[in-house]
Amino acid sequence: MKIFISIDLEGAAGYIGSAEGINTGELMAAEANAAIAGAFDGGAEEVLVVEAHGSKRNINPQKIDPRARILSGRPRTPEHMGGIDDTFDAALFIAYHAKAGTLRGVMSHTYSGVVYSLRINNIEVGETGADAAIAGHFGVPVVMVSGDDTVCREAKELLGEIETVVVKEGVSRSAAVCIPPSRAYEMIQQGAERALKKVESVPPFVIKPPIHVEVTFTDPSYADTICFLPFVERIDGRTVAYDAPNLLYAMKIFDGFRFLSTAVR
Questions:
Q1: Per-residue pLDDT tens digits for 59-82
Q2: Domain-by-domain residue ranges, the chain?
Q3: DSSP state, 63?
Q4: Dihedral, 255, 137, 200, 146 alpha carbons, nearest 10
């Protein structure tokens, strides 16, 4: 089996947004390695790890299990899912977080601080849903998500009975009851091994074309910038909409929106 692992930061065990005394790259590497180990325990023959946080240059490649390859750096599109194609058998999302506005979602947001809501064919999605839809475009099922309790609940509501690993319970956006990281790594490894047993039973998350997207920004200034594009419809003060022939094309446009929206604010 060929496995795709997308690794974020906000859903990592022990992390609540403060980096005091914490090397965030090492946190990401440790959780990625736990997932890699579990994937190989579950029968993987090839693993690609893709950085999905911030600059995409957080992890020292020397810290990654040598059985895997790692994709770091930007720009690339789709940002979190660079390298995904139809040769993969399954995807794992590690250290993910809930969508913007989620009650008690630890560091909840949708891609960046400029986006409040992303709706695809009238389905509101955060990073979990949108990234799963990109995987689904290639016929690849997401079989595992790890992070706080809110993102794991969000994942199951959208993707069905996939494997989830809750490493912390949200108290507020910047507070959580955390499982010690050493224990969380064991849970992630065991969860990844279990998840690979679901490859045949979990269907890909497919949003069928044609695709209609609505993006609500956090500030009207961002929408003011984007609405000059000829294919964009202005819905209200903060919301724009557009159509695309397929999900991958739609997400490439969305990536461009996030990069361009702050240009003249």
A1: 999 999 999 999 999 888 898 999
A2: 2-115+125-196, 211-260
A3: G
A4: 10
Whether the bond between 245 and the residue before it is cis, its omega within 30 degrees of 0, is: no
What pLDDT, in 10s, does the model give residues 211-243?
A: 999 999 999 999 999 999 999 999 999 999 999
Q: What is the pTM of this model?
A: 0.96
Please name the CATH architecture into which domain 2-115+125-196 falls: 3-Layer(aba) Sandwich (3.40)
In sequence order, which ranges of 138-180 are alpha helices (DSSP H)? 149-159
Instruction: Note the pLDDT tens digit of each residue in 147-204.
Output: 999 999 999 999 999 999 999 999 999 999 999 999 999 999 999 999 999 999 999 9
Residues β-bridged to residue 110: 112
Query: How far is the C-alpha of 43 from the C-alpha of 41, rounded, in Å?
Result: 6
Q: Among residues 137, 138, 133, which one has the least CA distance to residue 119?
A: 133
117-146 per-residue burial string, b: 16 or more CB within 10 A, e: under 16: bbebbeebbbbbbbbbbbbbbbebbbbbbb
Q: 240: which 2 tokens?
A: 């724009």
Active site residues: 109
